[in-house]
Amino acid sequence: MMAIRSWKFRIYPTKEQEKELQHYFYECKNLWNYLLDHTKTYYEKTNKFPTRKQLYVLTKKKTKLFSQVSQNVADKLVKSLKGMIAIKKKGGKVGFPRFKPIERMKSFTYPQFGFKLNEQLLLSKIGEIQIKKHRELKGKTKTLTIKRMPSGKWFAIFTSELEVPSKHNKGPKVGIDLGIEHFGHLSNDSIIMNPRHLKKAENKLKQAQRLLSGKKKGGKNRKRAKLRVARVHEKVTNNRRDFLHKTSKKLVDSYSLIAMEDLNVKCLSKDFLAKHVLDCSWAEFSRMLHYKAEEAGSEVVLVNPAHTSQECSSCGLIRKKKLAERQHKCSCGADIHRDLNAAKNILKRATGGRREARPFRPETPVESGPLPEKVRSANESGNSICEDGPPSFLQ
Ligand SMILES: [Zn+2]
Fold first, then answer.
1. CA distance 142 to 293
2. Distance 344 CA to ligand 1 centre (A)
3. Tens of pLDDT along 71-124?
C-alpha cells in the first residue's frame, strides 16, 4: 500500500535569503486576503463559491510568487471553504475563513515543483539554502513546506509517497475516551496518563508568559521575553507531539480497532469545553491514529459523541451527571469510573452494539432517554460490552 511520509530538516537561510522568504510570506498573505475578498463578494452576488480554476486564474494576475506556491494559497482557501460547508451541513455555526495579518502567515508550500534537494536546498526564485539533512528522503517527493518558527528557526518539511507493506492487525478492539483528568481512558480500564514532564514544561511556559506581560511595549526587554516564550512554547509543542506519536503508535500496534469520539461533532456540542488547551492535541492525535492505523493494519472508527458519559454502558439508561462527578453509578449495579463508562460506550457504538439494539432506526443517536423497563431488565444481568444481543421484544 502507499503511504505519505514527512521529513523535517532545519534550514539556515542567509540574512538576504531570510528577507526573500519573509517577502514570500507577505505576498502569500496579500494573495490569501485578496482571494478571500473576491470569494466573499462573489458569494454575495451569486450565492455560489468561485471554482478552484477561477481562483487559479486570479492568482496569476495578482502576484509574482512562484506559480505553484500561489496556487497552493488558492488550494488552502478552497480547503477551508469546503470545511466550512461541511460544518454548516452538520448544523454547526461557522463563518467565512478570516483575513490574515502578516503574523498569522507562518509557512508556504510548493505542491509539486519549484525545489530541488541535493547538498543544499534549491528554491526556485530564491536560490540555494544551507540545509542540515540528517536522513535520506525515501519514495517520491510530493511537496515542500517552508516554515518559520516564532523562535526564529527555519524548517523545510518534505512529504513523499512511498510503498509500505500492508499488515493485518489481529489484536482486540478498544474504545478510548479522551479526557482532561487523564489523557485517555481505555475501555479495558487502562489509563494513558498525561506525561508529567509536559506539565512541568507547561508551567515554565506560563512563567515565561507572565514575565512577558510585565514588560513595557516596544522595549528591548519585551522583545527578549517574547523570544523566550516562543522558545519554551516550541519545546512544549515538540514534547507534546513526541508523546502523541508514541501513544498513537502503541495503540495501532496493539489493537485491531480503536474507537473514539468524532471530534468534529463533539466540538459543536454545547457541553464541550471547546476552549481547553487539549482540544488541539486531540485533533492531532486523531490524525496520527488514522494514518498510523492504516499502515499497522488496524482501524479507527469515529462515533457520535452524544451522551457517551451519561449513558450507562451496562444497561443503556441515561444517568445525568455533572462534570465534577467522576464515578458512574447506576441502578443496574454498575459502579465504574466515569471515563471508563464513556470508553465502553464508545467501543459499543463502534462495534454496533447500539445498532443491534435498535434495528429499525440504525442511525438514531442515544438521546431518546431511558429505555423501556423491559430492555433494562433484559440487559441487567451482563456487564459485557459488545456481546449484548438485541432485547427479546425487539427481535
Ligand atoms: Zn445501568
1. 22
2. 12
3. 999 999 999 999 888 888 877 777 888 998 888 888 999 988 889 998 999 998
